[in-house]
Amino acid sequence: MILDRLNVPIVLAPLAGGPATPELAAAVSEAGGLGFLAAGYLTAAALRDRIAQTRALTPAPLGVNVFVPGTPAPPRPVTEYAASLRPDAGQAGVALGEPRFEDDDWAAKLSLLTADPLPVTSFTFGCPEPAVITALQEAGTEVWVTVASPADARQAADAGADVLVVQGTEAGGHRGSFRDDPDADAGGFGLLALLQLVGAGTSLPLVAAGGISTGAGLAAVLAAGASAAQLGTAFLRCPEAGTSAVHRAAVAGHGDTATTRAFSGRLARGIRNRFMDAHGGDAPAAYPEVHHLTAPLRAAGRSAGNPDLVNLWAGQAHELTQELPAAELVAQLAYVAQEALRAATDRWG
What we know:
Low-confidence stretches: none
CATH class: Alpha Beta
Helix content: 40-55%
Strand content: 5-15%
CATH topology: TIM Barrel
Largest sheet: 8 strands, parallel
Mean pLDDT: 96
Shape: globular
Order of helices and strands: HEHEHEHHEHEHEEHEHEHEEHHH
Radius of gyration: 19 Å
CATH superfamily: Aldolase class I
Structural class: alpha/beta
């Protein structure tokens, strides 16, 4: 089990869409944690190149995260949403993207990762079929599945997952729940509650994700039964990350976060901005159609440094992040976590 071989119980969240880089993944693995590459939004060929680049930087274990494809959305809600966005596109001087469904090169990525496996392959947005999990395991890779509810956890365990990544609602970016429809939007489980519920129902190792930006947060989830913590927002300000300038500035500030479908059609947590407030109530459950629709707007916002057009994905504790090289951040988080655990033991005694 890879988790037993880590020097520090820190896993880099995949951070698809720009922040993930070979340099960031390699730095976390070199520091004793587990670096992850994001396969999301890449072709299988581009993913192959990223894996090669990262392997050239470190011989340490690595993971890769893959999006489980969903199903096409009804066209009418997407068309109506596009009409509501046209004034924003006009003001930004761009045309909206073509809303389309695609499976993120699913079959080709699975072929790549079974032919040339990494130590860990994780999945988000659903649970792969048991046959997919078995094929990867037989190729020599551990299979981790992101779960956002006890029901998700039971399904993943039954399918044969080796590890469950337990994601609380505090997490930045897309919610990894198996269901993604308006009926499932309300509520959700905070990380501490979800860790306890999932831990009571399985003996599988758990990796905790959501709102962990400090060593004290790492200590808390370890005390609650996690084998490691997966951190994403905490690494967005590292120099190795490919985070855009406008996103870095927002993460360093004090903005409130909220969940929205406005940018991608799938529920995700980010720092509130004008676009989210204006369109969050109208956005349909339509991923990746809405993701492609808004892509030119988001690109224009990044280029212009306009935070009101950009998906500023971040967890609830984003203002506690630091601007440090990734290796220094891993070392500091681990040290503070150890001190926090000792202090808690002393208080008890």
